[in-house]
Specification:
The complex is a heterodimer of chains A (109) and B (114). Chain A has 109 residues and is mainly β. Chain A is built from no helices and 11 strands. The radius of gyration of chain A is 13 Å and the shape is globular. Classes of the chains: A mainly beta (109), B mainly beta (114).
Chain lengths: 109, 114
């Protein structure tokens, strides 16, 4: 049973618009959440994280929002750029580190 | 460049064959782990190690063995390959903990078992 779920396998967005990637989790013990970005034929790379004591964290064009009551995490990319096209994994940790199944983002020029 | 090095990048095995996937890091990280990536399943933890001489099982350990004789190396052994082990394998390292913050991943090994 997956504890971290990304229900949208893919997302297509026009360049310059906002990309919103969503993630849901089931385990209320998770205390740290992360987003990783993966290009083809490369390993995932860390993008942004948020602690469970916060509800928002920003880093440039990337903002992660955490809604603990809904057990929901989202990543906003504004503005989206073609170079953002990649697979995005959300992840959560408590005792170990659990990944979602990924969302493939395509940013169209 | 410092990082996590995985070899080989690609491998085709016949059912029943054994092999070792190599992973080495030069960052003096304590925590190392192996994941497999399958479509629709994300990355699932196979085995991990919190330091030399210490290993433990993750979510999907069956059919795999690991050892950690040095800080730098964390090989993953497939004992008797099965088609269900066709996957992309990633090794990762971290300074400590395993909470995912500051993970460095290798570029992956794509394994096909026929």
């Amino acid at each position: 049973d997956q504890q971290v779920k990304q229900n949208s396998p893919s997302l297509s967005v026009q360049e310059g618009r906002i990309s919103i990637l969503n993630c849901d989790y089931t385990n209320s013990m998770f205390d740290y959440f992360l987003w990783y970005k993966k290009y083809p034929a490369e390993g995932p790379t860390f993008l942004i994280s948020i602690s469970s004591i916060k509800d928002k964290n920003e880093d440039g064009r990337f903002t992660v929002f955490l809604n603990k009551s809904a057990k929901h995490l989202s990543l906003h990319i504004v503005p989206s750029q073609p170079g953002d096209s990649a697979v995005y994994f959300c992840a959560a940790s408590w005792d170990k580190f659990y990944f979602g199944s990924g969302t493939k983002l395509n940013v169209k020029p | 460049n410092a990082g996590v090095t995985q070899t080989p990048k690609f491998q085709v095995l016949k059912t029943g064959q054994s092999m070792t996937l190599q992973c080495a890091q030069d960052m003096n990280h304590e925590y190392m782990s192996w994941y497999r990536q399958d479509p629709g399943m994300g990355l699932r933890l196979i085995h991990y190690s919190v330091g030399a001489g210490i290993t433990d099982q993750g979510e999907v350990p069956n059919g795999y063995n690991v050892s950690r004789s040095t800080t730098e190396d964390f090989p993953l052994r497939l004992l008797s390959a099965a088609p269900s082990q066709t996957s992309v394998y990633f090794c990762a390292s971290q300074t400590s903990g395993g909470d995912g913050y500051g993970y460095t991943f290798g570029s992956g090994t794509r394994l096909t078992v026929v």
